[in-house]
Amino acid sequence: MTLGFTDSRFCGDFSCVFSLDFDHAAMLTHSANFGGTHVVMDIEQFLLSGSPLPAADVVIGGPPCQGFSLLNKDRSGDPRRALWEPFLEVVFRSGASVFVMENVAELLRSPEMAEINSRAEQNGFLLHAAVLNAADYGAPQVRKRTVSIGAKADLFPFGIPLPDPTHSGRWRTVREAIGDLPEPVGTEIRDEPPPLDLHFGRNPTAMSLERYRAVPPGGNRFDLQNNAPHLLPECWRKKTSGGTDLFGRLWWDRPSVTIRTEFFKPEKGRYLHPEDHRPITHREAARLMGFPDDFIFRGSKTEIARQIGNAVPPRLASAVAMQVRAALRKSFEETGKKRRAS
């Protein structure tokens, strides 16, 4: 999200003054790309420590989404569901006029959404929230997320609405994002300039290769059941219904499905290359999220994959940032007029 707000290829005009996350590798990546003070700490511990927060016009963030995710079947009592509370505490302590919070689509209809709205209103904010699809804003990926914009009511009497789609009906495709990449080399992060540094493969078993070859363009695990039942793992033999994305191939001429943290495992979703017999690489996943090749990632293969899968597509963040920028500029201009008039 920071990239979409601060980089001139996206929105620009914002600068990062402070960042905090519990994930050490994610913060190494953030500090390699953005300025400001970087703190690796649990957000609740940070607030309890009494450490000062710099003043900020805008606070952006994505409290962990796993507590709301449909992939988490038993979500009741998950402490990650409540991390929006310290996030809002940071908003209030920093004196921000605007905050942006991103989470999974399920948040919008959850009881917590009403609590978030109530807490924001109690502290003088008006909240606009909706489920946005990143593909509608130029990301080559269908990724639906709840995005909330909170704005100080005294500065923005009607709040700040969510941005209108910029790419509705003309979604970017997998081919546009990764079609120019060569065959991946090796199985480790490479000491080469991007994009080849993260364009490495895996070391599949003979059985896995057979399974990859048995899945036709646009196919999925049901093609194994129908065409090559001898390749089916036992758990799939017993499960004749369910998700159609498992062990599926991406389509060249559509956006990608939602990229998650284990995109390198085809058994986790539709993560097979559109025609090559392999899962997508880290570089391909990063491009399908919308990261430019020169964005710097830090950490192990697994840590980088987690950062990619948990990210907010920069194009979606940029659309929100431009909406916030326009509202702030208008507010600054009106405030300046009032000062000159007085």
List keywords for this structure.
single chain, 342 residues, alpha/beta, Rossmann fold, DNA Methylase, Chain A, domain 2, 2 domains, 4-stranded mixed β-sheet, two-stranded parallel sheet, 12 helices, elongated
Write the layout of secondary structure elements.
Blueprint: H1 2-6, E1 18-21, H2 24-33, E2 37-40, H3 43-49, E3 58-61, H4 84-94, E4 98-104, H5 111-122, E5 125-133, E6 144-152, H6 174-178, H7 206-214, H8 221-227, H9 234-238, H10 282-289, H11 301-310, H12 314-341
Parallel strand pairs: 1-2, 3-4
Antiparallel strand pairs: 4-6, 5-6
Can you tell me about this structure?
This protein has 342 residues and is of the alpha/beta class. It folds into 2 domains: 2-171 and 313-341, Rossmann fold; 174-309, DNA Methylase, Chain A, domain 2 (Alpha-Beta Complex), CATH 3.90.120. The protein has helices at residues 2-6, 24-33, 43-49, 84-94, 111-122, 174-178, 206-214, 221-227, 234-238, 282-289, 301-310, 314-341, and strands at 18-21, 37-40, 58-61, 98-104, 125-133, 144-152. It has a 4-stranded mixed sheet, sandwiched between helices. It has a two-stranded parallel ribbon with strand order 1-2. Helix 4 links the parallel strand 3 and strand 4 (98-104). The longest helix has 28 residues, at 314-341. The radius of gyration is 22 Å and the shape is elongated. The relative contact order is 0.15.
